[in-house]
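Training component of the fellowship. As part of building independent skills, the fellow (R.M.) carried out the full modelling exercise for a liganded target. The chosen ligand was magnesium ion. The inputs are recorded below so that the supervisory panel can assess the work.
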Amino acid sequence: MPFRSFAEVFAAKQILVCVGSGGVGKTTTSAALALAAARAGKRTLVITIDPAKRLASSLGLAALGHDIAEVDPAVVGAGITGAGALSAMMLDQKRAFDEVVEGHAKDPAAVQRILANPVYAQVSGSLAGSQEYAAMAKLHDLDATGRWDLIVVDTPPTAHALDFLEAPAKLAAAIDSPAIEWFRKLQGGGRSGWSLLGRSGSFVLARLAKFVGSQFLDDLGVFFTEFHDILGGFRQRAEETYALLRQDKVGFVLVSSPEPMAMREALFFHERLVKSQMPLAGFVVNRVHGHRPAAATVTEVEALLAAEPAVAALGLSGTSLRMSAEALHRAHGEQELLATVDDDALKRLRAAAGGDALIVQVPLAHQDIHDLDRLIALGQTLTAPPTPRS
Ligand SMILES: Nc1ncnc2c1ncn2[C@@H]1O[C@H](COP(=O)(O)OP(=O)(O)OP(=O)(O)O)[C@@H](O)[C@H]1O
Ligand SMILES: [Mg+2]
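Fellow's submitted model of the complex:
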């Protein structure tokens, strides 16, 4: 059954994953949804990625980091509806990846060797999909604790939102890549350094050592041997994560702006969700240009300006008053045009997403949404009951 508002979504879901292309408002939406859920009585955790300093500090969390912090109940204002509480953390992707290693290495000494390995430091940050993968692995662990009624997940600013769904597969592919396989074979699966190399392998390595140094090659060898032990665990975890994302308790929140590129991305993502049988919570179309009150004529604007004491104080009259009225009239016309373009975009989204999908529009605000009052207001927009038109 499709939802009619995010208030209904809160009642039905335990995990919300906010995805969308870069800069559309994922982090802001995640924070506003989590705050609204906490205020509605849910024990809520928001996992953010790189939130603006002012956003974190307006929740009273100046030093948000990888460890979970409780937001002061006085800030949440949860007293109004009972048990609600808000916790927040900022995902440190490197630490999340380290935790996956810790969970799968065969003993603590192996963990230390891997984490200290210079090749690991490089690879853990640059392996395709590793950041998204680390985020999902963390979600998987936190969900398993059962501490929260609702976990809201912000996602990394991927250039392409689909990267997020493809992360586990990409990581598995990188792990299985021919290059890694080659090194693993050279190592012979043992811990005897490069001693098992055949003659041609030795020759290649000797040539390589000239370029990259033999220390690097040793590090590489140790890394692949050690890492091999945990690869099976990684793959298993990727499968578990995928399975989690298909559960009914999960809902994807597709955040977009009305711009064609962002809309297209949200619709692609929607198609992927349908294909992968992953549940949609709804669309949030952020930064929509609103319609202003009916346009007046230039002469009417001029009369309004003339009656305005602040304008009189500026000494505007005659030609300058007329020119100001014309400029305002033009700006209003442009605003109306933008609002009409956004209306069309929303209509197309509604047609493409299926008539009954939840689509919430959020108006473009004049300022960034960082302070508590604006976050609460955004939460109210997101959870408001549907109006007959939307
Ligand atoms: N409706 C809105 N009106 C005005 N400003 C907004 C609105 N929504 C978000 N913003 C502002 O836009 C900026 C980008 O928002 P946000 O950080 O949430 O985007 P994001 O999708 O998380 O970006 P990234 O992909 O870089 O992580 C922020 O400064 C935020 O305050
Ligand atoms: Mg963000």
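The panel noted the following from the submitted structure. Residues 6-291+345-383 form a domain with the Rossmann fold fold (CATH 3.40.50.300). The chain has a mean pLDDT of 83.
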